[in-house]
Structures are given as C-alpha cells and as structure tokens.
Specification:
The protein is an all-alpha fold. It contains 22 helices and two strands. The chain has helices at about 10-55, 75-95, 100-115, 120-125, 145-150, 165-170, 175-185, 190-205, 205-215, 220-230, 235-240, 245-260, 275-290, 300-310, 315-330, 335-350, 360-375, 375-395, 405-425, 435, 440-445, 455-475; strands spanning about 65, 475. It has a two-stranded antiparallel ribbon with strand order 1-2. The radius of gyration is 22 Å and the shape is globular. The N and C termini lie far apart (about 50 Å).
C-alpha cells in the first residue's frame, strides 16, 4: 500500500502526482499507438509499391519476410517462457543476487530465442539458416588457405568479379566469415553448430546490457530492464541471423568500457578499481566489431556516451590500442578495410539496393525498428527523449551534480537512437534493418526500464505478443 502523507507538503505532492502520472501514461500509449500506425502505414504503402513495380524486393513490407501462418515444435515452449517472464520476471529480477540475475537473464533470453526459432522447426529454424546461397557457410572451403583468401578478399566483392562472394560475405569484413571458418576448424562444422553459436553468443547481449546499465546508472534501474531484455521481439532475428552474434560482441564492448570508465563494480559503491584489462578488452572487441560489420563503426556513438556519462577519458588510450591491434592484424594479413568498404558500396548498388526507393525505406526502416524493439520500447524511448535535454545540460562540467540514473539512461538511449538515424539517413540500410540494426536495438530496449512499475507487466505482455505474432504469422528471410 502507498504510505499516507504525513504533512501538507507531501499531501499536496501526492494530489498533484496523480494527473502527472496519468498524463505520462497517456503519452506512453500515444507513442506506442504512433509506432503501430507507422508499421501499418509501412505495410500498406509498401504492399502497394511492391505490387506495382516490385522495387522494394521484400514479400511482406517492411520486413524481409513472407506471410506464412504456422505453429511448430517451439510454440508451447515460447508460450510458456512468455507467461513465466510476464508473470514472475519483474519480482524475480528485483530480488535475485546480481550474478544470479545475469545468468538467469542470459538463460531466459536463450530459452525465449530458442523457442521462437524452433517454431520453424530444427532444420528450417536453426540448422539451415546459415547455409543458404547468401550465407557464410557456403564459402568455408575457400578459406582452407587463409593467407591468400584474406589477401584476395576484396577482389571477390563486386557482382561482376570472378567467383564473387555471396551477399553476406561480400557485405561484411572478413571477421564475420572467419568466425564460421574457425568453428569449422575446431570440428563445430555445419549449419547446426553455426546456429547454436549465434543463438548462444547473441543472447548474452542481454547480460552485457545489464552490466553496462548497472555501471552507468544504478542497479535498480538495470534490474527493471532485465525482463524486457529477455522478452525482446528482436529475439526473432537473433535466432535466425549472424547479426545477433555481432550485436553481442558490440554489447560486451560497451559493457567492458562502462566497467573500465566507472572504475567500480556497479551499484554506486566504490571498490577496487576494475583492471585496465577491461579497457583493453573493450578495445579489442571494438576492433572486432568493426571487422564484423562495416556499419557497426557507429557503435562509437554509444561508446562516446559511455565515456561522457562516466566523465572519464582514462580508458581511451587502451581502448584505441585494442582496436588498433585488430586493425593492424587484418591489415598485415592483407585485408584493406577502406578498400573493402568502397567496393561494398559499389556492390550494394549493383543489387537490390540500386532499385529500392530511398523515399520509402528512409521511414520504412523505422517501422522495422518498431517491430524489433516493440511498443514498450517506443514508450520508453519517448520517456528517454523527454528526459534527455535536462540530462545533457547537467552533464556540463559547470552544471553541478550529474544527472540521476534515469537521466543517464536517457543519454545512452539517445546515443543509440542517433546511431540508428545516421544509419538510416546514409541510404546504406535500405531494408533488412530488422537484423542489421540488432546491435542498436538492445540499447533502445533498455529504455523500457523507465516505464513505471505498476504498468510493467502489460508492457511486457505486449512485447511477448508481438514476438509471438511475428514468428507464427511470418516466415523471416534471415
């Protein structure tokens, strides 16, 4: 029960709090409704365009998916996970020991992602996902002699090049395909192991975001985010593409940077300094991130926000040293990142992107972002945007005390949103952003922690329903 006010001032505050809370709740619902309208508009207008001239090159705009209502082996498990997390997730996240929460969050995110993937069955949902003509596993044997393969990598990017790479190999730096080459070399060959790798590593991003939130904001706010990180609609694509794995690498990069910059274990309690190894490891993961996906260089924006929130630039030299180590290693091996990116841009417009209309995708992509993050995230981002101006003002050295936990989270969310908007405006993300933007989706999902506790379960239920509908009504292309 709410404690009864014991003086006139608290009583007055209590009387005025009601309308403010109701107004904020209405604004949340309006934001979620606006997100829904954006998706409906993208679907309706996209369908008209696709039927008229086929220029979108997707079967179910704005997603790269096909209409395919179905159930499968994962359906009972997915429903069970959803009910358990909605019913018991918030109180459990509030009382578990911190390390237990991290492991539970990762395990629950894996259970959710596995069950969603298995709605399509083992072969279709997991084992064959990374073995199609567009994917990495089709070229594993071409890397038996690693040196020449890396030195000649850029020579196979263009569509008119001899033995040109499949779409996903050509569209990424070589660290992406080398991951699966490495799995093959240690005996974990084939699509099944590749799928297991992507799901297992990809779902660890949920734990990484919790680590970063605890270090940069506070523990209660991180705990409030946990159930939303588990029931992320993005899990539909974490379980079906290598981009989920890329997202986890980027998430752990930011989590380690947050630990190195705050120099504490979290929760606001000063303790033994986090080793400088955290900053160096963050740099190594930053370098790996940039060699997994060209577009993930934008992860430097959330990284800059981490340093800004911590008011600490001491990790920067080791961060740069770690990233440079990866870059130097690939360069000495014969791969030129800049040349690869230049040729990728040319290859990009040799394919479907050459006809996909920018005028549609520049806003249709945002509808994809709504679908992978869900209505609760739209409401949470609304709250973050409302809090961000005041939080940014308080980050100035002369502004006095730094912003509170909610303000710091708002700044982190704003940085992720800025990265998404830059990627969108660049024109290099026309369609398929439901998987491409997974690395940024995790940080947008963190905004759900700003939603009031009294309404957390309905928002969680909305997230779960969206993911279940997507996976049961559509067959996703990736």
């Amino acid at each position: 029960m709410t404690p009864r006010p014991t003086s006139e001032a608290p009583a007055a505050a209590a009387r005025h709090a009601g309308p403010e809370v109701r107004a904020a709740r209405r604004a949340d619902l309006l934001a979620a409704a606006a997100g829904l309208l954006l998706v409906v508009a993208a679907a309706a207008i996209g369908t008209v365009i696709e039927r008229a001239n086929g220029s979108l090159h997707v079967n179910w705009p704005p997603l790269y998916a096909s209409w395919f209502p179905h159930v499968g082996p994962g359906t009972p498990a997915a429903l069970t996970v959803a009910v358990l997390v909605v019913g018991y997730g918030p109180p459990l996240a509030a009382r578990l020991p911190w390390r237990g929460l991290l492991l539970t969050c990762w395990a629950a995110a894996m259970a959710w992602t596995w069950s969603l993937a298995l709605i399509d069955g083992w072969q279709t949902g997991i084992a064959r996902r990374l073995t199609t003509e567009y994917e990495y596993l089709t070229v594993i044997r071409r890397f038996d002699d690693l040196g020449p393969a890396l030195r000649g990598f850029t020579g196979h990017i263009l569509n008119n090049a001899p033995d040109h790479w499949p779409a996903h190999v050509a569209g990424h730096p070589p660290a992406a395909v080398l991951t699966f080459v490495g799995l093959d070399r240690i005996g974990l060959d084939g699509g099944a192991w590749a799928g297991v790798w992507c799901i297992t590593v990809g779902t660890s991003a949920a734990a990484a975001v919790l680590v970063a939130l605890r270090a940069l904001t506070d523990e209660p706010l991180a705990r409030r985010a946990a159930p939303f990180l588990v029931l992320a609609p993005a899990a539909v694509w974490v379980g079906t593409s290598a981009d989920g794995y890329f997202a986890a690498v980027a998430a752990w990069c930011l989590a380690l940077l947050a630990l190195a910059a705050t120099r504490r274990t979290g929760g606001g309690r000063r303790s033994a300094p986090v080793p400088a190894a955290a900053a160096l490891a963050s740099g190594l993961l930053l370098g790996l991130t940039c060699y997994l996906s060209y577009g993930l260089t934008l992860i430097v924006l959330p990284a800059a926000a981490v340093l800004l929130l911590a008011r600490n630039a001491r990790p920067v030299p080791l961060l740069v040293a770690g990233a440079a180590t990866v870059a130097v290693a690939f360069t000495l091996a014969g791969f030129d990142w800049w040349e690869g990116y230049r040729l990728l841009v040319e290859r990009y417009y040799q394919g479907a992107a050459g006809v996909r209309p920018y005028a549609y995708w520049v806003w249709g992509n945002l509808a994809c972002a709504v679908l992978i993050t869900g209505p609760a995230t739209v409401a949470g981002v609304r709250r973050a945007l409302a809090a961000a101006p005041a939080a940014l003002r308080r980050l100035r050295p002369s502004a006095g005390p730094p912003p509170g936990p909610a303000g710091r989270l708002a700044v982190l969310v704003l940085a992720a949103l800025l990265a998404v908007l830059i990627a969108d405006l660049s024109g290099m993300s026309k369609a398929e952003t439901e998987r491409i933007w997974l690395p940024f989706a995790w940080w947008l999902l963190a905004a759900c922690a700003l939603l009031p506790g009294a309404h957390r379960r309905p928002w969680l239920a909305a997230q779960a329903v969206l993911a279940l509908l997507l996976n049961h009504l559509l067959y996703t292309g990736w």
